Amino acid sequence: MQLTYGNSTAAANVDDLFVASRNGQLDVVKFLIEKGANIEARDKDGWTSLSVASNNGHLEVVKFLIENNANIEASNKDGYTSLHLASRDGHLDIVKFLIEHGADINASNKDGYTSLYHASTNGHLDVVKFLIEKNANIEAWGDLGPYEWTSLHCASINGHLEVIKFLIEHGANIHARGDLDLFGHTSLYIASAYGHLEVVKFLIQHGADINASGDSDKDGYTSLAIASHNGHLEVVKFLIEHGADIDARGDSAKDGYTSLSMASQRGHLEVVKFLIEHGADTNASGENQCQPSKNACEEDHLDVVKFLVEKGANINARNRRKHLPLTWVT
């Protein structure tokens, strides 16, 4: 086989090795290694042939590369090892092989993500089970932008109920909060925010605090508040039916809104109706003394304003800047 790029056969071999590894072409990989291709060569992003093969699920190529002394812990520029990549994409056979050959099960990338974190985020239950059985750290924290979350948080945000069940059954902390210096969200809050009703049900049934709120001045909202804000009516119904505080206020110095205020601000009329039917205070005001009617007016949700007024909202109440609700319409 004669594959060349420019004037460098060595460079060609490396390029071809990457292509063959990515495509699972074991015979080509063997040929190139025998001809001197550098098994540890990296591309501009730090990927090796092993990481490419692991990412694409080519077990036989992975086996050959490891047997020929490829570095099992090599990571790309973002800190992803071959085990991270195989776990992220659900390649259980490769995950097993890498672990059996010494891959660090709790290694983290630059953002603190472990292999368990990746598998949980993407709903790969079989990989999650195997990693837990091999003593992966179930409470490892990853740094997801402004959030620091566990594997349970990440399974919750994506609604992976079976993964959540397994993690809880194997000791994951159902009350764990994100980084308290930022938001302090629980898994229940996250599931409520994204409308994952079955996850919400499971977490509540297994002891999650229905009225837990974020612990910072940036948030402080409950699961009910965020479900109301995002218009997830079925989640709102379930939370109310199971004892959520309908008039709980956010702890934020910025607003202190109730669930009704948040639903009104976003124009979620059906949520507004349900909350009021179940006793929400139509005139509750936040720290800035803004009431639900003001929040609805500010965003031009006139159907919500009309309903609030019909249910007793005070349209003459002023906020601390002395603005009337209808001031915001114009």
TrEMBL record:
Coiled-coil residue spans: none
Protein's UniProt keywords contain Metal-binding: no
ANK-type repeats, residues: 12-44, 45-77, 78-110, 111-143, 147-179, 183-215, 219-251, 255-287, 296-320
Pfam families in alphabetical order: Ank_2, Ank_4
Keywords: ANK repeat, Repeat
Annotated InterPro entries: Ankyrin_rpt, Ankyrin_rpt-contain_sf
Domain of life: Eukaryota
Protein known as: Ankyrin repeat protein
